[in-house]
Amino acid sequence: MIATTQRAPLVLRVAAPLAWRGDRRIADKLMGFSATELGSALDMLRAAELTTDPDLRRLFMKHALDEARHAQQFRDAAKQLLGRDPEVRPWERHHALRQDLFERWGVTRFVAFVWISEAKASRQFEVLCGHFSGRPELQDLFARVGRDERYHVAYSKHLLDMWRAEGRGAEVDRALREIRLSLAWMAWRRAGRRIGELMTLGLMAALYVAVVPVFALLQRALERPQHGWRAPRRELTTTTLDDARRPF
Amino acid sequence: MPTHVLGLSAYFHDSAAALVTDGRVVAAAQEERFTRTKHDSRLPLEAARFCLAEAGLSIEDVDHVVFFEKPLRKFDRLLVSHLRAFPRGFGQFSRAMATWLGKRLWLSSEISRALGCAPERLAYSEHHLSHAASAFFCSPFERAAVLTADGVGEWATTAIWRASSGRDGQPAKLELVKELHFPHSIGLLYSALTAYLGFEVNEGEYKVMGLASFGTPRYLAELERVAHLADDGAVTLDMRYFCFDRHETRSFTPALEALLGPARVPGTALDLPADDGEARRFADIAASLQALCERAMLLAAHEARRVTGEDALCLAGGVALNSVANGRIVAEGPFRDVYVHPAAGDAGGALGAALWMSHVALGLPRAPDAMPNAYLGRGYDNAEVERFLEDVRVRHRSFDDPRALDAEVARRLAEGEVGGWFRGRFEWGPRALGARSILADARDPGMVHRINAKVKFREPFRPFAPAVLADEAPRWFQLPEGRPDHLTPWMLTVVPVTDEGRRALPSVTHVDGTARVQSVTPERNPDLCHLLEAFRARTGVGCLVNTSMNLKGEPICATPADALSTFRRSDLDFLVLERCLVERAA
Predict the structure, then answer these.
(1) What are φ and ψ of residue B18, in 5° steps?
(2) Minimal Cβ distance to A58: which of B97, B125, B393
């Protein structure tokens, strides 16, 4: 069974033309997608290793390979877009990280997460497919990836439905609730981190202007440039267990 | 009661964990193999858990947890660097301070919390001390000079040590003789020029080494203005050309470009040897840098010999992964015997820290053959692999007789196929040594192109390395005569290929007629040895191309799932997982 996804929300359709304009910006976003897909591939691969259920292992492995392929396709498309603009290298800004979701959440919540996030991705790709109707290479990319995502939505929904039919409905509903809450909490934390980073930047700027100059002047006045080999400073050598207890 | 010491390295690049029990290395692994994030620098929790599981221990059983460097001394260097650079470098200052004040200054509590170990069991080695210990205590020497060289540790960038095993119940000694301090660093010079040549720092240094063979060192005079090299091997960088002390993503200044010409834009083609323009210039700069690096290491080796009087040398630190320089130290240096640690980079610091604690701080006697091989990572038994393949419904052939598997793989390789080889515990260090390798026929001149097209997608100027039966190695490669060979088992040196080798093994002969050889013995790697013997029985040649099993930008495979994922995303013809053979049609 292939799932039908809900129509994409208005906000996605309105935001697409604003967010996806200009080749540099598009490439940057594609690289962001690539990193997300690769991170997802790593989590699915990990789930395939950890699960003891043969059917889940097969599904997770296939999912991992799909996500890794998408990551490569997004990356290739980004590089293609910037082929003549080598000064910009967005792939250096985006890094894929595994989040160990299967270990943290267990199988039910993990599959609930897959269903929710893949459905969201599927809707987003549907919007982007429409947005890039004038650029066949990007439209085709999102259409191809979207097809796979719909399969991921379908198999995860099938699993959740199957578990419901086995009398685990309450567990599935709880997992879905918890995952929705977790996603909201993660979004809040991301926003909080950004706010924190801005505040830190301000604080560091104040420190850099008000405090650092004094010490910089002192440093310059007192320091004698030294080149070449130096003899070790005996008081700083680490030779005993007591020395090793010091972090300095 | 045995004494267990867990070593950790983290927070720069290549974090790792290593477990040493009574001076013997039980397990060691880089975090990237588990997390699948290349050069992962986070605290190596998964690697640590693996090490403990491998030994059947829990963290409560561990007597000491040793971090490989002194964090506060590193913070001191960071502060001083920023004071020196003021008012430049605010960007890096703010990021670095946020990282340090938010996390790294509280390392002790972070490690204790993450691993669940008591804070009083935590200790700190020093960066270069850890490197030195990793090399000396894994070497076969009773006493030696030790030379450590890398980008930078706390303050030191290069150091010379005198090392000796403890006698009559005395602890072993690792005595620092002299050191060079930041920013004067041959490792940072190499990294900065790696960035100038358009490659990623801490990743592209091997590429520079490969590129160097295509050039002539006609920029040596210019580089000597940038980095003054004294007769005693001390390097002094002219910091007008560099900004790695104040800039996070850029390591050289416009002055370097004014001197050497515009830097290479990353990703632009290097069509060598055909391109006589910019590609040639970059190759010449790489050759000049390599020549300078080799000279610096040779001079430092002479200085180590002079100040210690020892006739054996141990090498560690990232610069010790420069296999061309290692080859010159062996061939032209003043030492009778040379040993290089297989994980000479920062990962090796984890093992060094644990060994230092065991032998120097705790005074445990050295175990004979503390690290007999470099297969210290996780392994999988055949039943586990078979169950995995059956679960994911991958058709495969299972071989009860491993010799039959060897014969089948040898036949396929001899027919020109390229295959993955996943056997035993994975390797410690950056090289694939036949546990997680891609293998191919070294006799086929088109093999480099085929491996690149099928799986590696490497720059065409980069060479592939050979794995050769140790008894056959002298036929194909000019190994140093009359002295023990501690480097070729770990692919840590480059040697000239014999005339017969150049004719017979074109795929592993680099443009300059050299190869980075791995010699294989039944004691170190029986599985690969049997395969090479089967290949020799079929072809008369006991040598194969051996390159790491990974796709571009990914860490080397660790698990059967990683290997299968790599196989499925590449055009490899077959994959051997323990005693199972997966074919392309599957």
Answers:
(1) -145, 140
(2) B393
